[in-house]
Design brief:
This protein has 185 residues and is mainly α. It is built from 8 helices and no strands. 70% of the residues lie in helices and 0% in strands.
């Protein structure tokens, strides 16, 4: 059975990585609906300049296309182009993630956003480490993942707090200690 600290990290990783994956997929899909953005030097495309696939995706905007701001038309056109470039599997994943998002309560959405923001503020090397550990966790057999989740869930709050504090202290110590290059030539 893995060390409880690994369970802690896997639990945190699942939450943050799930949000990261969800956010990427949802942003691709929701990119069609983005408002605002930076003004573009070139004019946004007219309806007739859109490709057939873009027109099909944006059909709901056809009657009011000319009334939309240039930045909104540009964002919608770029979003439709990104959507068209997705593989069928990526599109299906985006649809599933959007359905999950719609089923969430506002409080759940807010928590997920906060976790993502916290993850985004981490140094790139820590984010990469977390992603790597999450991938390791995902490769475990489902029964082992379930056991790890149950073990974390059943751990008393004081023990969880102690494990998280130990992990934070260890991480802070690693950040303060310069690493030596042990590569072989």
């Amino acid at each position: 059975m893995p060390h409880p600290m690994n369970v802690v990290m896997m639990n945190r990783l699942m939450t943050m990585s799930s949000w990261w994956i969800f956010r990427r997929a949802a942003l691709m899909l929701l990119g069609l609906m983005l408002l605002g953005g930076q003004e573009v030097a070139l004019a946004a495309p007219a309806w007739g300049e859109l490709s057939a696939s873009q027109q099909k995706l944006l059909a709901g905007f056809k009657d009011r296309w000319d009334q939309l701001s240039e930045s909104r038309r540009d964002n919608l056109a770029r979003g439709a182009a990104r959507w068209a470039a997705l593989t069928p599997q990526q599109r299906e994943l985006a649809r599933q993630r959007l359905q999950q998002w719609r089923k969430m309560t506002p409080a759940q959405r807010q928590r997920l956003k906060q976790r993502f923001e916290r993850f985004s503020r981490l140094p790139p090397e820590k984010r990469q480490r977390l992603r790597k550990r999450f991938e390791q966790f995902r490769k475990l057999p489902p029964a082992q993942r379930k056991a790890l989740r149950a073990r974390w869930r059943d751990l008393p709050a004081a023990d969880k707090q102690r494990l998280l504090e130990n992990r934070r202290r260890r991480f802070d110590r690693q950040r303060r200690t310069p690493r030596l290059n042990h590569s072989r030539d």
